[in-house]
Specification:
The protein is mostly helical. It has a single domain, classed as Orthogonal Bundle (ABC transporter involved in vitamin B12 uptake, BtuC), CATH 1.10.3470. It contains 17 helices and no strands. α2 runs antiparallel to α15, α14 packs parallel to α16 and α15 crosses α16. The relative contact order is 0.16.
Length: 286
C-alpha cells in the first residue's frame, strides 16, 4: 500500500500535478459554494467557454495561454456586470449575449490556427500532468488572492447574496461587490483550465459545493466541507488516472460525482435513503 501511494510521487510531473490539483480542488470548491447557493451554474459554464478568445489570441501571439484566458475572463465578467448594472438587461440575458459573442469570436480565431486541434486540446479537456512550474506559481498566486478576498469580504458577500434589503440598509456597494464576485469566479475558472479544462471546470465548481450543501447549514462550514471534498476528489482522481492511464481531469470529476451520489443517498436528514428509513420508522405499517 505504501509503495502504491509513493510510486507516483517519484515523478516530478506528478508532484506538480498533485499540488496544482489540490489548489484547484480547494479553490473551486470554496468559490463554488456561492455558485451553488446563488444558482450561478450557467454563469460558470458560460464564463468557462468565454475565455476561448483570450486563449486563441495568446496562442497566435505565442504568449502564455493562461494569461490570455485570464484577460478574456475578466473582460467578460466586467462586461456582464456593466450591462446588467442598471437593471435594463437581466443578468442571465447579459450572460447569454456575451457568452455567445465570446465563444463565436474564439471559434473564429481558433479556426485560423491550422494545428489548433492538437495544440489547444489541453485547454478544452485539461492536462494536469503537463503543469509547469510557472503555471503552478500562477495558480498558487491567483488562488491565494481569491481565497484571501473571500475571507476579507465574507460578511459582505454573505449579505448581498442572501439579504439584498439588509445590504441596502447597510449601504453596501452591492453592484461593486457583485462585479467583484464575477471577477473572482473568472479567476477561479482560468486557474482551473490546466487541471480539468473548459469542458469540466463547471463540474468542479458545482459538485463539491452541492455535496457540501447536503451536509451543512452554515456557509462557513459548507465551504470547509466543500474544500475537503474537492481536495479528496483531486487526489483520488489523480491517482486513479495514473494507474488506469486515463484522462486526469475526467477522473477527478467522476470521483467528485461519486462522492455526491453517496451523500445524496446517505446524508443525514437530506439523503434519499435516510428519508425513506425515517418514514418507515414513523409509519411502521407503511
Amino acid at each position: 500500500m505504501f509503495e502504491w501511494l509513493v510510486t507516483p510521487l517519484t515523478y516530478s510531473f506528478m508532484q506538480r500535478g498533485l499540488l496544482a490539483s489540490l489548489l484547484v480542488g480547494v479553490l473551486c470548491a470554496v468559490v463554488g459554494c456561492y455558485v451553488v447557493l446563488r444558482s450561478m451554474a450557467f454563469l460558470g459554464d458560460a464564463m468557462a467557454h468565454a475565455i476561448l478568445p483570450g486563449v486563441a489570441v495568446a496562442y497566435l501571439l505565442k504568449g502564455n495561454l493562461l494569461i490570455g484566458a485570464l484577460a478574456a475572463a475578466v473582460i467578460v465578467a466586467l462586461g456582464i456586470g456593466f450591462f446588467s448594472r442598471q437593471g435594463t438587461v437581466k443578468e442571465d440575458t447579459a450572460i447569454g449575449i456575451l457568452f455567445s459573442a465570446a465563444l463565436s469570436l474564439g471559434v473564429v480565431l481558433i479556426s485560423t490556427v491550422k494545428t489548433y486541434a492538437l495544440d489547444l486540446t489541453h485547454i478544452l479537456f485539461g492536462n494536469v500532468l503537463g503543469v509547469r512550474t510557472g503555471d503552478l506559481w500562477l495558480t498558487g498566486c491567483v488562488g491565494l488572492a481569491v481565497l484571501i478576498t473571500i475571507v476579507l469580504l465574507y460578511k459582505e458577500f454573505l449579505v448581498i447574496s442572501f439579504d439584498p434589503i439588509l445590504a441596502a440598509t447597510l449601504r453596501l456597494p452591492a453592484e461593486l461587490l457583485r462585479t467583484l464576485m464575477l471577477v473572482l469566479l473568472a479567476l477561479t475558472i482560468v486557474v482551473s483550465l490546466q487541471t480539468v479544462g473548459v469542458g469540466l471546470v463547471t463540474a468542479m465548481l458545482v459538485t463539491p459545493g452541492a455535496t457540501a450543501s447536503l451536509l451543512c447549514k452554515r456557509l462557513s462550514s459548507m465551504m470547509g466541507t466543500a474544500a475537503a471534498i474537492g481536495a479528496l476528489s483531486t487526489v483520488v482522481g489523480l491517482y486513479f488516472s495514473f494507474y488506469a492511464n486515463i484522462a486526469s481531469g475526467a477522473a477527478i470529476v467522476l470521483v467528485a460525482t461519486c462522492i455526491f451520489i453517496m451523500v445524496f443517498l446517505l446524508a443525514p436528514q437530506k439523503g434519499v435513503l435516510w428519508r425513506i428509513s425515517l418514514r418507515r420508522d414513523v409509519d411502521p405499517a407503511g
